[in-house]
Design a protein that fits this description.
Layout lengths: L2 E3 L9 H7 L8 E3 L16 H9 L12 H8 L5 E6 L2 E5 L9 H19 L3 E6 L4 H9 L5 E8 L5 H8 L5 E6 L3 H12 L9 E3 L5 H22 L4 E5 L4 H11 L6 E6 L4 H8 L23 H7 L3 H7 L1 E4 L2 H15 L5 H13 L5 E5 L7 H8 L7 H7 L6 E3 L13
Parallel strand pairs: 4-12, 5-6, 5-8, 6-7, 7-13, 9-10, 9-12, 10-11
Antiparallel strand pairs: 1-2, 3-4
Helix pairs in contact: 2-3, 2-8, 3-4, 4-5, 4-8, 5-6, 8-9, 13-14, 13-15
Length: 425
């Protein structure tokens, strides 16, 4: 199995090579040359999620250095529950919030960290990971990479645009994790990371990425869509419509990759906040990245989503893209209304991001078989959620452990050179 750049000017590489490299040499993102077909995957009570993940991902690692380590990586990475919560007969919530940092990013970040540690050990190399975060990515990456051999991590987050509990998760690590509060937006953080990758003078740092531009984040994110869709079909006899909160559109790209492989998915719908770049493209046929807008669903505050490049590669003709991709923008007022409404009717607590998906379900797919994707635990956003539901949000033990740690970070501007002012590696 080989992977090629979305921009078509870089050599084809194996999965392990793409994971270590992060961004392709031509600045593009790695995608599979072809997608394998899902066959006879073990799903249900007789298999663990890790076993399912290994069977699904194995074709992508054929002939790669990690081929014989993949089973161990999947068991190591996915050591926490994946929960499917039925709120109605054909109305499910896919809860991806039970990992060490209570966000869906734990799936991709832990798989990536396990894979990179194995690869670096085989190559006798060291890496510096740069990661821009709009809220949850940085915490998940920091948790996954903390203490890993041969890897140092620099986490960039936008000043004043993450919740206090998210900030705590980004800055409580120390050791091989350094955190930087950037005086700018998430898009500024992402631009800094990309600029550093393209700077030849930083070659000695051995830079790589843990954002969803990295193949090692996308592949494991495709797994839980296949897994949950098989379980949904077994329980209902129907294929689900997935409604996915989307910012940098990496999570939904994982769903489209799963769909390409033959997972029993009826369709995929993107729930956006006021950052409606994808919706603007669907309506106009012109893709125009924009400055991000600050919202209650802060992890989705992305005006220039990196993984649009992968979606456009998958559906290069606009007619096909519009046929396969649908998106809806949800306002902050609608987020508030949905959190309260779902608590009042279902006694179920939504985070602001998950609320965008539930709003889209209620408005467009109320009578359809659906799975909305819960991307972050509402306890991270207690200042928003608790006044709306009139009740405290229980704090998971995993989150409380992080909140009790001391914080450490540096405040910098938007010049990526500030990340490398200390002595060379």
């Amino acid at each position: 199995m080989k992977f090629v750049s979305t921009r078509g000017k870089a050599k084809a590489v194996t999965a392990g090579e793409a994971i270590l490299q992060g961004l392709a040499e031509d600045g593009g993102l790695y995608v599979p040359e072809t997608f394998p077909t899902l066959r006879n995957l073990p799903v249900g009570e007789v298999s663990s999620y890790g076993e399912f993940a290994f069977e699904m991902l194995a074709p992508f690692f054929e002939g790669d250095l990690l081929e014989h380590d993949l089973a161990e990586i999947c068991v190591d990475a996915f050591n926490f529950p994946i929960v499917l919560n039925p709120l109605g007969p054909e109305r499910w919530v896919l809860e991806l919030t039970h990992g060490p940092t209570c966000a869906f990013k734990d799936f991709g970040a832990r798989f990536l960290a396990c894979s990179m540690e194995k690869l670096l050990e085989k190559h006798g190399r060291k890496l510096t990971i740069l990661v821009a975060t709009s809220g949850d990515t940085g915490g998940a990456v920091a948790a996954a990479f903390h203490g890993r051999k041969g890897i140092s991590v620099k986490v960039l987050f936008p000043k004043g645009r993450v919740s206090e509990r998210q900030k705590k998760q980004l800055t409580c690590w120390g050791g091989n994790i350094e955190s930087y509060e950037v005086d700018g937006s998430f898009d500024d953080c992402q631009k800094m990371v990309k600029s550093a990758f393209m700077d030849a003078s930083l070659k000695d740092w051995g830079l790589s990425s843990a954002n969803s531009i990295n193949l090692g984040r996308l592949l494991p994110q495709s797994v839980y869509y296949a897994y949950s869709s098989y379980l949904f079909r077994a329980a209902t006899g129907k294929k689900p419509i997935f409604i996915i909160p989307s910012g940098n559109v990496g999570n939904c790209t994982g769903a489209y990759w799963s769909f390409q492989m033959g997972a029993p998915i009826e369709r995929i719908s993107l729930a956006l906040n006021a950052n409606r770049t994808v919706l603007d493209y669907l309506e106009s046929g012109k893709y125009v990245p924009r400055a991000s807008v600050q919202t209650l669903a802060n992890a989705m505050d992305v005006g220039a989503p990196s993984n649009m490049e992968r979606l456009l590669n998958l559906y290069p003709r606009f007619e096909d893209f519009r046929k396969m991709v649908s998106a809806t923008s949800v306002s902050d007022d609608e987020i508030r209304k949905t959190i309260k409404q779902t608590w009042d009717e279902d006694h179920y607590i939504l985070c602001p991001h998950t609320a965008t998906a539930e709003r889209v379900r209620r408005d467009k797919f109320a009578d359809k078989p659906t799975i909305i994707v819960s991307t972050a635990h509402p306890a991270k956003f207690w200042t928003i959620v608790e006044p709306l539901i009139g009740s405290p949000v229980p704090v998971p033990q995993e989150l409380q452990l992080l909140l009790d740690k001391p914080s450490s970070f540096r405040s910098i501007g938007c010049d990526y050179h500030e990340l490398f002012q200390e002595a060379k590696p």
